[in-house]
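in:
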């Protein structure tokens, strides 16, 4: 089989007026329905014609694939609260991009919708976005301590400083308090145990989403 040395991408965009029944389908079912309607006549016809035309210049089609995506433009816009819940680490501009990418494609079920938005939020920005913080916790010795660290706005994990990383936290204590330096924001967190890297401290995404605006504003100023 010959080796490809060119990649060709030919894109068409069609604006369609569909019966109401199509607009009630989930994004996945809508795409599948359109693909079935197009069938081999379109999906195989285009590669066949392309190979024939390019063959006149001695160009051979080595392989091909197709991608179908259908955007339901009649669907209600994605609520900002849902976008923030899925990506509390995103800036305002990035939330707008997330809305544009996912609009008209949301699964019907709430749990699936949340996972869908979260997946796309991380695909948009998966980098760690860290802000300094102080963790108020009770040590295994029974003493209260203020531990320095950095809160990861992308996934809610807290990385303690080198000097505090060996601290052992008391089990089954009330939620830890995380104060993000310079914001006055206090977040509740839990400790899922200890590893060689220190206590596993985590802030829930819902908690980050509640305080998203001041947290992102602070990150943008300090990044």
């Amino acid at each position: 089989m010959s080796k490809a040395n060119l990649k060709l991408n030919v894109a068409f965009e069609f604006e369609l007026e569909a019966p109401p029944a199509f607009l009630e389908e989930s994004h996945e079912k809508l795409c599948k329905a359109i693909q079935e309607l197009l069938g081999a006549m379109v999906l195989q016809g285009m590669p066949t014609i392309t190979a024939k035309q390019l063959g006149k210049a001695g160009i051979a089609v080595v392989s091909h694939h197709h991608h179908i995506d259908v955007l339901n433009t009649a669907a209600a816009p994605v609520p900002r609260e849902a976008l923030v819940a899925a990506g509390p680490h995103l800036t305002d501009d990035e939330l707008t991009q997330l809305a544009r990418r996912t609009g008209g494609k949301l699964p019907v079920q709430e749990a699936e919708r949340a996972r869908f938005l979260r997946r796309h939020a991380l695909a948009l920005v998966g980098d760690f976005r860290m802000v300094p913080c102080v963790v108020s916790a009770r040590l295994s010795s029974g003493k209260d301590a203020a531990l320095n660290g950095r809160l990861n706005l992308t996934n809610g994990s807290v990385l303690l400083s080198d000097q505090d990383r060996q601290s052992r936290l008391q089990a089954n204590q009330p939620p830890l308090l995380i104060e993000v330096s310079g914001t006055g924001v206090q977040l509740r967190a839990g400790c899922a145990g200890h590893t060689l890297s220190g206590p596993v401290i985590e802030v829930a995404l819902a908690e980050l989403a509640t305080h998203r605006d001041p947290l992102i504003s602070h990150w943008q100023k300090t990044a």
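note: The radius of gyration is 25 Å.
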